[in-house]
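Quick one - first record:
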Amino acid sequence: MNLFNPHLHLREMVIVGAGGTGAQIARSVARMMYDMRRAQLDPPLLRLIDPDSVTEKNVGRQLFTAADVGQPKAVVLMRRFNLALGLDVSAVVEPFEAERHLTSRHHSSVLLIGAVDNERARQQLAAAEGVLWLDCGNFTNAGQVVLGNTGQRERVLQQLAANTPVYRYLPNAALLFPQLLEPEPPVVPSLLSCADLMAVGEQGLVVNDLIAAIASQYIWKLLYRQPIQSFASFIDGDSLAVRSPMICRDELLPYLTA
């Protein structure tokens, strides 16, 4: 059995996107932080980054109420978790920029969690080379979660050639799926946000929750230093199936040589 062990000590978690998926992930992470404190463990800092404010179409479809309309999503969640659980979550109401918002010299101590729905935001996530990046994406009633810490193909190929049972590097979402960084085709439904897609029946109501649950399990494993055996998970809401390819040469190589 191969395992991922990047030899990291997480000091900060940054969630980019506080909408349908990001808000649910943030909720789970806040619970983990509270649990770690109760167990006298030292949880990483948590920062929420999203430039958007709550609109009426977000109410009920995302983790927001009618009283939140007009307020910044990241700030609403920050206040909620800090007041409810006594945490010290911070919020940034700006579009994410790698150089601006990742100021730590130790990028390897940062877990960057992406829950965005446009290529410009993902381009900035991909620009944060050296961080551990957990990327979440979805469409109609399915989606994927990808865990990686490098966009350098040769680095991963050298590791595969070494045939080691412990992997220090996993390909990030931009390396596995470069099309994620490209503009969407000019089809009207694809230009809508997740909330818009749900409103017109183009996206399932709970697909974000499914993606967030799987992403949160990856985060739990990282925080509690549990073995990481898969580099991605593919979720199908129609069949209620989750496929998580194992970390091994046979599973990784097709993505790197296509």
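second record:
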Amino acid sequence: MDFHKLLIRTLSGLVYCGIIIGAILSGRWGVAALGTVFILLANLEFSKIAGNKDRAPSLTMIDILAGVCLALSPMEPTLAIGVIIAVMSRFILQLYAPVSSPVASISHSMLMFMWVAVPMLLMSCISVMWSPMIILALFLMLWINDTGAFLVGSTIGKHRLFERVSPKKSWEGFFGGLLFNVAFAVLFYYVGNEFFGMARLHAGLVAWILMAVIVTVFGTFGDLVESQLKRTLHLKDTGTMIPGHGGILDRIDSLLLALPAVFVYLFFLTIFNN
């Protein structure tokens, strides 16, 4: 990678991270707004890569509306009605949509709803039920894991993690990312337990380390799931939205499985610590 490409990748990455951190620091509505943006961009991106012949614009807009209402429903429960109306309308409008395969069209919609919108709902739930700062800790762990996995994997990686889906990922990179994450989890506990909102859950050092392990494992699975979809569609990246990093789905793939896993973990942590 030449210096110019490296510079573009670095700057776009900093802007991307800055937007996310700023949204989270602004509070619950900022987290909800971040989720709606992810839903909007992911749906528009997926409608291009999955084949426009099965993704009529009107159907994509309904998909986005359903997802946005779902993501915002923890902030405004009446929006749950909007989710129901949008989902019902989606199936009815399919009768009139000029697409070659109604099954493929509906499947695409349900994939976006389950794969992207539901995790964004859980992201809002975490910020409302516990703290928006836990979302910040989650993002930091995902970024730390990616950094550790890249540094270790590119240096000593030899044993393929899942070659059929992602030929470049290695077991050495996986454990490198895990080691980085556990180390920072220890740091977060000692210097940021209150700031990240984990103190109110009575989270100790072990709880932080378990969260780091969960983020690493399910973040990696999320990455592999998206890699499988890209290989099926014969794509290197899902888009070019973020220069040097690919599309929005390339950037949030780890988040989409890590979020549900962390939500379940926090739920049981709350039960056991109260």
